[in-house]
Amino acid sequence: MKPALTLKVVLASLLSAPLLWLAWRVQLDINQPGTGLGPDAGETLVHYLGEWSLVMVLIAFTISPMRRWTGFSGWLRSRRMVGLFAFAYVVLHIASYLVFYLNLSWQALFEDFVERAYITAGMLAFFCLLLMTLTSTRGWQRRLRARWYQLHQLIYLAIGSALVHLWWLTRDGYLEVALYSLWFVLLCVERWAGSARFIWRTGARQPPG
């Protein structure tokens, strides 16, 4: 098996693991309510999927630095797959919120979007990721050319908005959200430093990848 394909298989298995774990907990809860998801199953699902959504997006954001750190181009071939996994987690998070908190009321979702700042921040992150996902194919990359790179800089806004969403939701125990924020900041510094080195060496306006 080729190294790039092996990497995709390993990554797909690891990225699927949180959903498999969640499925097992749901099964426990179905057999004996309260044992798998706690006293409030809906809240547990929403928070679990929300946190893993952020983790997955941060993992996707780490792919390009991993290519630079390791010199292995196979990371870039896995980038779209990781991004699709991240978007799938985000969709599941929003779907669980819509089902368990809003009883499938689109009007309530719109009202939350307008009236609750943390929901506005979360939905802004979602729309950024939606636009990036829809244009993630090679076909769109060819059509948009340089604009494709500019469009996919929305990842900064998406992660920043997701972190704001989490900060506003957190009432105590800020360690995890602080670590996620540090992860994002360190990746930003690495990317900007890498871009500066590339521009300084080549005179190009934007780095590859």
Topology (SSEs and partners):
Layout: H1 3-31, H2 41-70, H3 74-77, H4 79-100, H5 106-115, H6 117-134, H7 138-144, H8 146-151, H9 154-169, H10 175-202
Helix pairs in contact: 1-2, 2-4, 2-9, 2-10, 4-6, 5-6, 6-9, 9-10
Estimated radius of gyration: 19 Å
Per DSSP, the total helix count is: 10
Mean pLDDT: 91
> How many separate domains?
1
Low-confidence region ranges: none
Please write the string of helix (H) and strand (E) elements.
Answer: HHHHHHHHHH
Number of strands: 0
Helix content: over 70%
- Gross morphology: globular
Distance between the termini: 25 Å
Structural class: mainly alpha
Largest sheet: none
As a percent range, the share of strand residues is: under 5%
Can you offer a commentary on this structure?
With about 210 residues, the chain is mainly α. The protein has one domain (about 5-200). Helix content is about 80%, strand content about 0%. It contains ten helices and no strands. The protein has helices spanning about 5-30, 40-70, 75, 80-100, 105-115, 115-135, 140-145, 145-150, 155-170, 175-200. α2 (about 40-70) packs antiparallel against α9 (about 155-170). It is globular and about 60 Å long. The mean pLDDT is about 90.
In brief:
This protein is an all-alpha fold and 209 residues long. It contains ten helices and no strands. Helices cover 81% and strands 0% of the residues.
